[in-house]
Each structure stands twice: as structure tokens, then as C-alpha cells.
Task: inverse folding
């Protein structure tokens, strides 16, 4: 996006138009090959370390399924009543509550310090979970885990989306998320290996799963402090930035040409409330919630479902990992295609249809092979839709403050998807979980309805913006258009 820069005055709800501060950069004809070289430097520095830390977050969050079939259920008596579901559920309460405050702290403290500190903290908690004797202490540890993990994913999404242009972001989010999914899938194989340590030092195999995975988290968190980078407008404040002043200005110029918000605007609780009054942010949040439900259900209950089909513990964990391979093979090319076509909703619809087909096959087929193929379709659809929905939100908002609020709200609702999966997939419905599958199907139908509404609305508003018939500019900028 080029031309004039629109400044939103929160106090009087007015707009003023000023020339962009770095318009000279935008008009100087920067060599695109040089720009791509800089972006590759950003890719290599930003995405791998964030993916590594979020990978261990996924492992620490979802290792309950592996630990459960490795003996934790019997040792802590989680098979009484709804104890297992409670252990899963309590994680998401602080996870939802503290995401927005964490994003506000992130800008003040700095990405490296904040994100590595909370990762170190949840790693310590995971280690401690390996030594507990009472299921109630496990509940408390899961609450702490949710508290510390709450800030990481919204912080990652906020940070990644701040570095790239709108139609570069989905493939980056997909690469980031799918890499974490691969590691998360490998965690089932790691868990199977750690189970073989059963009896060493007098500790059960499930305890070694938690202890070793926690140690890995702490180690990666220490590396994260050294390698995580800050936002573009704060990067040069670091002692040894990995980009030169000129390269940072090129990055900021690209962002301003695209959406004109390279410089962070102030954020207060009043501005937070104002952003939360935008109904579209709640739609993006619901879309992510619906996309995460199948993923959480697979992570938490797939080993149990497969074991109910008659597979051994080891084979159940291996088959859980194998689901990740087709998901990555399909999802990453779709993300690149979506960025190239500059479309979002059609790709989310495709992923949703895959989820619907998979849920139906798994719920109603009596053939184990068909049920497993259905779970595979669910995995592909869910892993494809999560970065697509995150990009859908990112493409249709402007300003750093709104991005901070929106990413936290959206990831918070993604966590609610975990709560939903933890409660509708009930132990008494095992191993078929028919009621849980129907609830998940209903959420996918809601996704299709919401996408139909936003697509009609966005096309109408884009047309009005082009015709100049709107009372207010879209996202407070005369050249902004929604991505459909």
C-alpha cells in the first residue's frame, strides 16, 4: 500500500492523512532481488527458533495422551470419574485469560526476554510434573503450564505478521506451524522410546516422558534468548542486530507499501476495548476455535482411540505420528498457493470440507482402515486451516495495537477449542466418541456459515471503498481492501 498515511485519533474518532515518513524508500526503486535476500535472512533468523520453542510447547501441552497410556492413568487414578478430562481442561483456563496481557508485556519487555522466559518457566513445570504423586497436584501443574504457555503462540503470530507483507504471511505461518506439528508428531515416537526407561531410578516410564521433555524445553528456551529477534521498529535497539540500519528501513518500507503500519502505535486499555468492539475480530477467533478442535481431539484422544481399535501401545503412537506426513505434504503447497492467489476463504473452505469428511468417516465407519483414513483427512484439514485462518485475520487488520489484540483474542479462542475437545470427547464415550465427533462436525458447519457471511461483507465493502461511497475508510486507510 502506497501513498498517504492515515492516522487514527482514538480520542475523537477522527482520521487525518499525512505523507508516509519513509515514502522516499518506497519510491527509490529498491532492487527486488536485494529485498528477497533480506527477507531470506529474516526467515532463517525468525522462523526456526520460534518453531523450535513452539514445538516443545506442543509436546509439553499434549503429552498427556502418551503419558496416559504409559501408566499415568493407573498411577494417579485418572480413570475415576472425569479426572482425565479435568486435567486436560484446566490448562486452557489461564491460557485463555492471560494471552492478551502477555502481548501487551511483549512489546514493553522485548521478544527475546519475554518469550524465552515463559518457555523456561513451563519447561521447569513439565519437569516437576514427572515427580507428582497426586492427581490434584497434576491439575495445579497444568494450570501453571497454561499460564506460562499462554503468551507464546499469540506472541509468535504477532511477531511474524509484523515482519512480512500480507501476501507473504500464510506460507510463513504454515511453515512455522507445520514444523511444530512434525516435531509434535515425533513426540509420540520419543514418548514410546522414553517409556522403555520404565523402572530406571525407580521412576515409571510416563514420568520419564515428562522429565526428559521438560529438560529439552529448558535447553531450547536458553537458546531462544540468544536467537529470537524483536519487532522491526525495535530491532536496532538490540546490541547486535542481525540487519543493518538500511536493511531495517527496507523492511519497514515494504510494510508501509503493503499496509502502512511499520511503526507501532500506542496501546492502552481504552484502545484495547475499542479494538474488541470490532465484530470481525470475534469471527476470526471463532474460525480458529473451530479449526483447532479436530487437532486437539487428535492430539489428546487418538492414542486412546487407536488402542480401542485393538492396536498395541507402540503401534498407536507410531500411527499417531504418521498422520503428520500427509498433512505437511498437502498443507504447505496450499499455503503457498493461497499467498500467490491472494485468497483465504476458499482455502479455509477446502480444509473444512476435508475435516467434515474425515469426522464423518471416523464416527460412522466400522472398518479400522477407513476410520484411520478419516482421522488422516481431519489432520490435513486442521493443520491446513490453522495457518490459513491466522493469515485471514492478519490480512484484514491494520496497526500494531489491533494486531496485538486480535492475535491474542484469536489464539485465546483457539485454546477454547481445546476446552471444547476436552469436554465433548468424554471417557464414557470411548472408544468411539460419537458425541464428540458430532460436536466437532457442528463447529465445521459454523465455519462454512461464517465464511459465507464474511465473504459477502468483504466484497461489498471493497466495492464501496473503490467507489468512494463509504462513510469511513476500511481499517482507517483510503487504499486498504479486505482479503476474501
Result:
Amino acid at each position: 500500500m502506497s501513498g498517504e498515511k492515515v492516522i487514527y485519533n482514538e480520542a475523537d474518532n477522527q482520521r487525518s492523512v499525512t505523507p508516509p515518513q519513509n515514502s522516499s524508500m518506497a519510491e527509490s526503486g529498491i532492487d527486488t532481488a536485494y529485498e528477497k535476500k533480506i527477507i531470506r535472512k529474516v526467515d532463517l533468523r525468525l522462523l526456526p527458533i520460534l518453531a523450535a520453542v513452539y514445538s516443545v510447547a506442543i509436546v509439553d501441552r499434549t503429552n498427556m495422551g502418551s503419558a496416559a497410556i504409559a501408566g499415568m492413568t493407573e498411577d494417579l487414578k485418572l480413570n475415576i470419574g472425569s479426572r482425565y478430562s479435568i486435567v486436560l481442561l484446566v490448562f486452557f483456563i489461564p491460557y485463555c485469560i492471560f494471552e492478551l496481557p502477555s502481548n501487551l508485556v511483549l512489546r514493553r519487555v522485548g521478544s527475546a526476554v519475554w518469550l524465552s522466559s515463559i518457555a523456561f518457566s513451563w519447561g521447569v513445570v513439565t519437569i516437576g510434573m514427572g515427580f507428582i504423586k497426586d492427581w490434584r497436584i497434576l491439575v495445579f501443574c497444568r494450570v501453571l503450564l497454561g499460564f506460562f504457555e499462554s503468551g507464546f503462540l499469540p506472541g509468535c503470530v504477532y511477531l511474524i505478521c509484523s515482519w512480512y507483507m500480507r501476501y507473504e504471511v500464510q506460507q510463513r505461518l504454515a511453515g512455522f506451524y507445520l514444523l511444530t506439528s512434525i516435531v509434535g508428531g515425533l513426540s509420540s515416537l520419543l514418548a514410546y522410546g522414553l517409556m522403555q526407561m520404565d523402572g530406571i531410578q525407580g521412576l515409571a516410564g510416563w514420568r520419564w516422558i515428562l522429565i526428559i521433555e521438560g529438560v529439552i524445553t529448558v535447553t531450547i528456551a536458553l537458546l531462544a534468548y540468544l536467537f529470537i529477534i524483536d519487532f522491526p521498529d525495535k530491532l536496532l535497539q538490540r546490541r547486535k542486530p542481525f540487519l543493518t540500519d538500511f536493511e531495517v528501513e527496507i523492511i519497514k518500507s515494504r510494510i508501509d507499501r503493503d499496509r502502512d503500519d511499520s511503526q507501532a502505535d500506542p496501546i492502552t486499555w481504552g484502545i484495547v476495548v475499542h479494538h474488541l468492539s470490532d465484530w470481525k475480530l470475534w469471527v476470526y477467533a471463532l474460525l480458529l476455535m473451530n479449526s483447532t478442535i479436530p487437532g486437539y481431539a487428535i492430539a489428546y484422544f487418538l492414542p486412546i482411540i487407536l488402542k480401542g481399535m485393538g492396536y498395541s501401545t507402540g503401534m498407536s503412537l507410531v500411527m499417531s505420528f504418521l498422520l503428520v506426513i500427509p498433512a505437511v505434504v498437502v498443507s504447505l503447497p496450499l499455503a503457498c498457493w493461497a499467498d500467490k492467489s491472494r485468497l483465504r476463504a476458499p482455502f479455509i473452505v477446502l480444509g473444512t470440507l476435508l475435516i467434515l469428511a474425515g469426522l464423518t468417516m471416523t464416527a460412522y465407519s466400522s472398518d479400522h482402515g477407513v476410520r484411520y483414513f478419516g482421522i488422516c483427512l481431519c489432520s490435513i484439514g486442521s493443520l491446513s486451516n490453522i495457518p490459513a485462518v491466522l493469515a485471514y485475520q492478519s490480512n484484514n487488520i491494520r496497526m500494531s495495537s489491533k494486531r496485538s489484540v486480535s492475535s491474542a483474542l484469536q489464539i485465546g479462542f483457539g485454546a477454547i477449542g481445546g476446552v471444547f475437545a476436552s469436554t465433548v470427547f468424554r471417557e464414557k464415550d470411548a472408544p468411539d466418541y460419537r458425541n464428540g465427533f458430532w460436536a466437532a462436525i457442528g463447529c465445521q458447519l459454523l465455519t462454512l456459515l461464517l465464511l459465507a457471511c464474511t465473504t459477502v461483507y468483504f466484497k461489498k465493502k471493497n466495492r464501496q471503498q473503490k467507489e468512494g461511497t463509504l462513510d469511513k475508510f476500511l481499517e482507517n486507510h483510503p487504499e486498504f481492501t479486505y482479503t476474501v
Strands lie at 5-9, 14-18. Confidence is low (pLDDT under 50) at residues 2-28. The chain has one domain: 37-476.
